[in-house]
Amino acid sequence: MKIIIVGGGKSGFALASALSDEGHDVTIVDNSDEVVSYISNALDVICVQGSGTDSDVLKDAGVENADLLIATMRSDETNMICGIAARRLGTKHVIARVSATQYLKQNEFLRETLGLSVVVNPEYECAKEISRIIKFPSASHVSTFSKCQLEIAEYRIAAGSPLIGLQLKDLPRFGSKVLISVVERGNEAIIPRGGFSLRENDRLSVFGSATELRKFFNAVGAYTRKIRDVIIMGGSKIAVYLTGMLCELGMEVTIIEKDRAKCEILTDYIPKANVVFGDATHDDVLIEAGLRNCDAFVAVSGDNSDNIITSIYAKSKTDAKIVTQVTRDHFAEISESAGLDSIVNEKELMSEQIIRYVRAMGNSEGSSMETLYLLADGKAEAAEFYIDKDTPCTGIPLKDLKLRKDVLIISVIRDNKSLVPDGLSVLELGDCAIIISPRRTVKNIGDILT
Amino acid sequence: MNFKLCFRTTGTVLLILSALMVLPLLCGLIYHESIWNFAVTAALCAGLGILFRLIKPSSNELFAREGFFTVGISWTIMSLLGALPLFISGEIPDYTSSFFETVSGFTTTGSSILTDVESLSKCGAFWRMFTHWIGGMGMLVFMMAIQPKSRENSMHVMRAEVPGPSVGKLVPKISSTARILYLIYIGITLLETILLMLGGMSFYEAILHSFSTVGTGGFSTRGDAIAGFHSAYIEYVLAIFMLVCAINFNLYFLALTGRFKIAVKSEELHVFLALVLCVTLIIALGIVKIYGSFGEAFRIALFQVAAIISTTGFSNRDFLAWPGYTKSIIVMLMFIGGCAGSTGGGMKLSRVMIVVKGVYADLKEILSPRSVSPVRLEGKRIDKSSVNAAYTYFILYMLLILVTALLISVDGFDSQVNFSAALTAMSNVGPGLADIIGPMGNFAAFSSFSKVVLAFCMLFGRLEIYAMIILFSPKTWKSIKR
């Protein structure tokens, strides 16, 4: 597909990199010479320098016959104008990033009146992810497969855990029906077989229904305390969305914000929250806000280094669940080595969301992939494939298929029920298969065969 | 420095080279000639290529350094191996001469050490001129064109191989860009072959001369080269195709995709055509006495101007016998060369334009310090760093010519021979401006040492200096230990 991305910032870059790797023809429009020359070196895309709201520039980038335009500039309004212009000029689909709180309620209105296909709100998505993590504190990340109520939770094996030394085939000993789909050890992501044995500090992607996962975490002695008090550092948009979600779940939320005026506005948006004026990087402010007694600490100030440092400090003072917003990939790695395991990145969440949409668009053009989730820091992925009449491996028991060593079929969804497949299971027409594979190696279900 | 990835890419290049050697091999089979020299070389290339391909890179990181290094090392190894067929068959008795001839082929220079071209076997001559075609658009661009999705495809590699101050893509995917360039290239080659055959050339000679023209090389199958055909038609066809291939190929893409108006607006194109026309007229007026009629003089002048500015260097008439000022003009054209993004050599017209405009702007700023006068090219503002890059290139170009002339002066020829040999090698033109290396002479008289120096000088010129400099930098090789 011909895709134009307007705005070459962090999210634009991440999107361009992923989409061009998937074989799409990507054009990036950005105003800055520096960004343009950097991206044209780093990625296999073409760059156009100029303003994203200038119709001449957009025409130069080829909007007239583009399949998709993604507007990811900083300002919501610029994105909307760019989107409208592209639609008028002939682009088939437009995705615009719109993140201001007041627009969230008008999502439908915006889509209909402006002719946009999707309005993405990275901050809102990020807040949703954080609220999932808080609901499931043992895991560092949780993704939900929309169709089947199955979840994938990432979990790190702490010292002294009963899982250490366990061979995967002995997993049913813990009395819960879960599957370990990916093990991240050091910088490597392994898709394990039955004989694989676990070690301390391995990060697991555990797959199962919500109840089975809870049983599993109870059995292995991971953190199960119910979360009541949450401290949020920074009064960002994410904080506003998140507070709304957490208050609905009946949690007590304290927001620490260092800008007096912003604090007052916050009280307008989220009257239920307890807003504290102060700099959360100061320890006495944190302690006063109740750090020692809180159950979760969320750092979403928008400043990477403040978030990381304060999270490390909070971790040393309390055994609460820590969630840290980090928007730079290489910082995320460092933070994980410092013991912060729940890292959220709204840019990445947004690019995942958009890629899911692009794949769905591409579905009509051959790929049968339904949804895609990144696991283990993006080193592996879980993808849902629809089995249609063109799928090569239907009707054959899985043990007779020559499957690649590094892929795993973790679930087959038939009639809205999920089955855990074994050697005798057969893929049938109309099924959905969830397949775990190393990143970007399986684009079609046929790719799982050797 | 990611040597593993660089050498792996070189492996791919060698595999392609081995596949390309099938063509001269087939040619030998058709003419019932001994082909085992090609068989052995192709096998050797394939073997080395597979060996290099076995290297597993630990990372896929590829920066500008790696891009330059990959291109430099690939071209050097390619030339070393490409020299084997003519050496094994004994048609060129010593290896350094064969290396010189092959580098001259790949870099589309067209300087030869052969005293009797016509004594070559048919397949040997085919290979000699086919190297022009391979080198014209570039081997790594070819590699990217045929492998659509690969980590070896990188803008850094493309930029290191495609000539010109700023290399851009035509379409988002680098492999599609490479494929489009090659399709245009092949299209022009076929068109020229047909036109030459209409002028009475045999298919064999027509396609070989097309290889030579489209790559802007300059080898010929005949000792007296183009003059041997005694055909005004062939001279016109060759002259026009030499000019066509000295123009930026991006313009053809624009024209073919219906953006003809943008293509004809190109500032570089205007300057190029104006320059060719002016210089042709000036030279034609100077030689009208020698050749009798103005029509004849115009044709000969056009052919010579096209041959020099496109850096093809086909020899037609002995321009050394022309009036003195025409020779000075020819030297000037040798420096300038073709347009950016063409197969021509030299300093590239757009770079010369940047340098001239930059110097003018600098002078203006010195005289009235408050005036702001940025350099503009193709209607766009060129930032200071690009202008500086053009200056640097200009200076390096001159320095390399001086160093080469100095090194080859050990052979004891006079300075006219040394300097014009260095210039013609650096600009990938072919003939020099002294009798022994002129259009009617050849480079056989040089010592082995000088041949190697000149061969590397050609590589410096073709790969626009940086890709070769990195091979000669001790810092590069020190990092291999780590």
List segments of chain A where confidence is low: pLDDT < 50 over at least 5 consecutive residues: none
Gross morphology of chain A:
globular
Q: In angstroms, what is the radius of gyration of chain B?
A: 22 Å
The structure class of chain B reads mainly alpha
| CATH top-level class of the largest domain in chain A | Alpha Beta
Overall number of domains of chain A:
4
Distance between the termini of chain A: 28 Å
Strand content of chain A: 25-35%
The pLDDT mean of chain B sits at: 91
Q: Tell me the strand order in the biggest sheet of chain A.
A: 3-2-1-4-5-6
Find the CATH topology of the largest domain in chain A.
Rossmann fold
CATH architecture of the largest domain in chain A: 3-Layer(aba) Sandwich
Q: What is the percentage of strand-forming residues of chain B? A: under 5%
Question: Percent helix among the residues of chain B?
Answer: 55-70%
Query: Low-confidence spans of chain B: pLDDT under 50, at least 5 residues?
Result: none
The overall strand count of chain A is 22
Quaternary structure type? heterodimer
Largest sheet of chain A: 6 strands, parallel
Rg of chain A (C-alpha, Å): 23 Å
Give the CATH H-level superfamily of the largest domain in chain A.
NAD(P)-binding Rossmann-like Domain
Let me know the number of strands of chain B: 2
What does this structure look like?
- The complex is a heterodimer of chains A (450) and B (482).
- Chain A has 450 residues and is an alpha/beta fold.
- Chain A folds into four domains: 119 residues, Rossmann fold, CATH 3.40.50; 94 residues, Regulator of K+ conductance, C-terminal domain (Alpha-Beta Plaits, 2-Layer Sandwich); 116 residues, NAD(P)-binding Rossmann-like Domain (Rossmann fold, 3-Layer(aba) Sandwich); 99 residues, Regulator of K+ conductance, C-terminal domain (Alpha-Beta Plaits, 2-Layer Sandwich).
- Chain A has 14 helices and 22 strands.
- In chain A, strand 18 and strand 19 form a beta hairpin.
- The radius of gyration of chain A is 23 Å and the shape is globular.
- The model of chain A has no long low-confidence stretch (mean pLDDT 84).
- Chain B is mainly alpha-helical and 482 residues long.
- Chain B is 65% helix and 1% strand.
- The model of chain B has no long low-confidence stretch (mean pLDDT 91).
- At the A-B interface, strand 2 and helix 2 of A face loops of B.
